[in-house]
Write a structure and sequence with these properties.
The structure holds 2 protein chains of 2 kinds.
Chain A lengths: L2 E7 L7 H9 L4 E4 L6 H11 L10 H15 L2 E4 L6 H14 L6 E6 L7 H4 L17 E6 L4 H8 L4 E4 L4 H13 L6 H14 L28 E4 L5 E4 L10 H8 L9 E2 L4 E3 L4 E6 L2 E5 L2 E3 L4 E21 L3 H18 L6 E7 L18 E10 L2 H17 L5 E2 L7 E13 L6 E6 L1
Parallel strand pairs in A: 1-2, 2-3, 3-6, 4-6
Antiparallel strand pairs in A: 1-7, 4-19, 5-14, 7-8, 8-12, 9-10, 10-13, 11-12, 14-16, 14-17, 14-18, 15-16
Chain B lengths: L1 E3 L4 E8 L2 E8 L5 H7 L2 H7 L8 E6 L4 E6 L28 E3 L12
Antiparallel strand pairs in B: 1-6, 2-3, 3-5, 4-5
Classes of the chains: A alpha+beta, B alpha+beta.
Chain lengths: ~450, ~110
């Protein structure tokens, strides 16, 4: 038996039509969605505090489900998704609503809870991984804490007959491996097969990043029809080897280069990639191009899982104020330099209290900063981009207010944007810690449409 | 011959907290030994001076002709705290394309050109 698993999203803002294409033309057994970034849970908690009507799940849930449910129901494709964010039960009920809208009743939808540990995180964890301080130091600013769950609760939900499983935080590769464990009967401690499965999950968790996205460099790495990229599909065998491919006739490409780039994406030690389910070793991987846009993946290795799970802890950390304005034509750089000097003096006059202040010239050094070669050519156009990190919103607002002042009180030939509202944003800092595996108790709730 | 790394290898960067990882992958197996010899962790760190503030660790994956550099303190405090316009450091890998490599002349046919 070959199991067909397709990607439906790689992050919250991902395109939706490639998910629909995978549902309609991918002949999939499973369609899996990954929709969270590091700060998603904390940002959702902050939003919920301000706006009690915010349901707390993926804001694109309706659009994604409407796009894929009809085809998934017709083919019998099961769906695994982490769109539940801080409200998996609410997401499950919303999905059941859409199932009924499409005339499908009696379909089982499981929600997974138990990963949110905001109330107990300070008791369950000791040390902040990033700086070695006790996690108790985060208490005053704590917003939210969640465990990275593994594939096991999803497998349990499938065993209970779920057709759709919706969770909050689950490690990205585990979302895609859960169907392999369930369908092939892999044991949760079979680190050989789980290493292969989790490695495969890692390769498609970022969607189009393995089918030609985040890849093209004209002349060096050309991508056919890059405006029409498909999301990846795995054809998995019971031994954990697979062919990575995509729907025929779409743009993009799958080759050894795209697979290797994605293999190392967000990986530190390639021989020890830690996940909740297993430690993956990519260094033994065998890759073979077996056809156009078809790469066979075998021999990924695995080692026993660690006794702990990663915890992500979100804290409020202050504010960032930012804005920009523009110069062009002969002398753009000299006017930008004077503008920078004016702003530096103005920030002294208004007593800006910032932890860090950056005034960059976009076109010269706003992206690579101090690495920019000193002999870089002077561009025809420059944006002066100003950003400061502050403790209070009032201080951060000074950035926008001082840039407003540059309109009539600044340098000649200054180009400016229409003043906009999103110049100050709140920072949610994300810290990591570890929790003992046996202290975490995921639960499953089953409803029917 | 001395060439820019962009002709011998491709790269991608990823983010985790305040750490950026940058993979450098040879276009051909014959080019890989010249990457491992010349693009050491120390030279990589020098090449990223001013942005990478912490330790650089290099991992070698010979079977896939890839090096993976893990650069700590490269993302201005982390994605959410960073004042850099490219908060995620998605474009950081492009800097390594300018690193200069010495490649034997007879391998010139393996090099990419725009």
């Amino acid at each position: 038996m070959t199991l067909r698993i397709g990607a439906g999203s790689a992050w919250w803002g991902d395109r939706i039509s490639p998910a629909a294409l995978n549902a309609e033309k991918g002949d999939l057994d499973y369609l899996c969605f990954e929709t969270m970034a590091e700060a998603t849970v904390s940002a959702a908690q902050v939003r919920k505090r301000r706006d009690p009507s915010f349901p707390g799940y993926d804001t694109w849930l309706d659009d994604r489900m409407r796009a894929v449910l009809p085809a998934c129901l017709e083919r019998g494709t099961k769906i695994i998704t982490n769109q539940g964010w801080i409200n998996p039960d609410g997401a499950a009920h919303r999905i059941a609503h859409w199932l009924r809208e499409f005339g499908a009743t009696g379909i089982k939808v499981a929600s997974i809870n138990g990963g949110l540990i905001t109330d107990s995180v300070l008791e369950l964890t000791d040390t902040i991984l990033e700086n070695g301080h006790p996690t108790s130091t985060l208490q005053p600013d704590l917003v939210s804490a969640e465990v990275y769950l593994g594939a096991e609760p999803i497998v349990d939900a499938l065993k209970q007959g779920a057709h759709i499983v919706v969770s909050g935080r689950v490690a990205d590769p585990s979302i895609f491996m859960a169907p392999m464990m369930y369908e092939f009967g892999w044991d949760a401690l079979d680190h050989t097969r789980l290493g292969r499965g989790n490695g495969l999950g890692h390769l498609i968790e970022c969607g189009a990043q393995v089918t030609g996205g985040y890849f093209a460099d004209p002349g060096f790495k050309d991508v056919p029809r890059p405006w029409d990229l498909a999301f990846p599909i795995l054809e998995v065998e019971s031994d954990g080897s697979a062919v990575l491919t995509k729907v025929k006739g779409t743009g993009g490409c799958i080759n050894l280069m795209t697979v290797k780039e994605q293999m190392f994406y967000e990986v530190h030690d390639p021989a020890n990639y830690l996940t909740p389910d297993v430690v993956v070793d990519f260094t033994t991987t065998q890759l073979d191009q077996v056809g156009p846009d078809r790469v066979r993946i075998s021999n990924i290795s695995g080692k026993p899982r660690t006794p702990t799970l990663k915890v992500s802890i979100g804290c409020t950390e202050g504010y960032i104020g930012e804005d920009m304005f523009f110069y062009a034509g002969p002398g753009a750089l000299r006017r930008a330099r004077l503008a920078k000097q004016i702003l530096e003096e103005r920030f002294k006059l208004v007593g800006l209290d910032a932890e860090e202040l950056r005034i960059d010239f976009l076109g010269i050094n706003a992206i690579h900063g101090a690495m920019t070669p000193t002999d870089a050519a002077e561009p025809y156009e420059i944006a002066v981009r100003v950003a400061a990190r502050t403790k209070s919103r009032e201080e951060a607002n000074k950035i926008g207010r001082e840039i407003d002042g540059m309109a009539v009180s600044g340098v000649g030939m200054t180009g400016k944007r229409v003043p906009h509202q999103d110049r100050t944003r709140e920072i949610i800092g994300v810290w990591s810690s570890l929790v003992a595996r046996e202290k975490v108790h995921p639960t499953i709730t089953m409803i029917e449409s | 011959m001395r060439v820019r790394l962009e002709r011998a290898a491709h790269c991608r960067s990823g983010d985790k907290g305040n750490t950026s990882n940058i993979s450098v992958i040879a276009y051909a197996p014959e080019l890989y030994p010249f990457l491992t010899q010349q693009l050491t962790a120390e030279r990589f760190r020098d090449h990223y001076a001013g942005v990478v503030t912490g330790r650089v660790t290099r991992y070698e994956v010979e079977g896939l002709q890839a090096l993976n550099f893990v650069a700590e303190g490269a993302l201005g405090g982390g994605v959410s705290r960073s004042l850099c316009l490219d908060n995620y450091g998605k474009s950081l890998s492009s800097r390594v394309l300018a690193f200069e490599l010495d490649i034997p002349d007879h391998l010139a046919p393996l090099l990419k050109s725009p």
